[in-house]
C-alpha cells in the first residue's frame, strides 16, 4: 500500500464551549428550570459561542438556578466573568465567556424573547439526566 493510500487520521477538536453549555444546562435542569433552550451562536455571533436560556417560576427559583449553576461549575474550577441581575431575580445573566447564561422569570422571558431575536441560531439538544 502506498503512502497516499493510507488514510490520514483526523484530529478531533473538542468543543469545550459545547461541553460547558451542557454542564450548565444540566445544572439548570437539576434545579427544575423550565423551558431550557441552548442556542449555537458560533457562526452568527462574535462575542460568544452559546446561549443557555432557562426559566424559573419565581424570583427565588431564578436565583436558585443561578446558585446551582455557579456551584456546579465552581467544582470544575470554572468561574463566571460576571453575574448580573441576581438581586432582582427577574433576569440573571451569567457570562462564562464562550457560554452566556440567561435565567429569566417567566414574564420577563416572554417580554424579551431572546429566541426570536436569535431565530437564526440552531438549537442544541442534550440528553440531560
Number of H/I helices: 4
**Which geometry do the CA atoms define?**
globular
Overall CATH architecture: 2-Layer Sandwich
Strand order of the largest sheet: 3-4-5-2-1-6
| Count of discrete domains | 1
User: What's the β-strand tally?
Assistant: 6
Strand content: 15-25%
- Given the helix and strand composition, which structural class is it? alpha+beta
Largest pleated sheet: 6 strands, mixed
Instruction: Report mean pLDDT, rounded to a whole number.
Output: 91
CATH class: Alpha Beta
Radius of gyration from CA coordinates: 17 Å
Please give a handful of descriptors for the protein shown.
globular, 129 residues, Beta Polymerase, domain 2, alpha+beta
Describe the structure.
The protein is an alpha+beta fold. It has one domain: Beta Polymerase, domain 2 (2-Layer Sandwich). 33% of the residues lie in helices and 24% in strands. The protein contains four helices and six strands, in the order αββαβββααβ. It has helices at residues 16-30, 59-74, 106-112, 114-117; strands spanning 34-40, 50-56, 82-84, 91-95, 99-105, 123-124. It has a six-stranded mixed β-sheet with strand order 3-4-5-2-1-6. Helix 1 crosses helix 2. It is globular.
Amino acid at each position: 500500500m502506498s503512502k497516499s493510500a493510507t488514510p490520514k487520521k483526523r484530529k478531533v477538536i473538542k468543543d469545550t464551549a459545547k461541553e460547558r453549555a451542557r454542564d450548565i444546562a444540566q445544572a439548570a435542569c437539576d434545579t427544575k428550570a423550565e423551558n431550557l433552550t441552548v442556542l449555537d451562536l458560533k457562526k452568527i455571533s462574535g462575542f460568544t459561542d452559546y446561549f443557555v436560556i432557562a426559566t424559573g417560576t419565581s424570583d427565588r427559583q431564578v436565583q436558585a438556578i443561578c446558585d446551582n449553576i455557579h456551584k456546579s461549575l465552581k467544582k470544575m474550577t470554572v468561574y463566571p466573568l460576571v453575574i448580573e441581575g441576581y438581586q432582582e431575580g427577574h433576569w440573571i445573566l451569567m457570562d462564562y465567556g464562550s457560554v452566556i447564561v440567561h435565567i429569566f422569570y417567566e414574564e420577563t422571558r416572554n417580554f424579551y424573547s431572546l429566541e426570536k431575536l436569535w431565530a437564526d441560531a440552531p438549537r442544541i439538544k442534550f440528553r440531560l439526566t
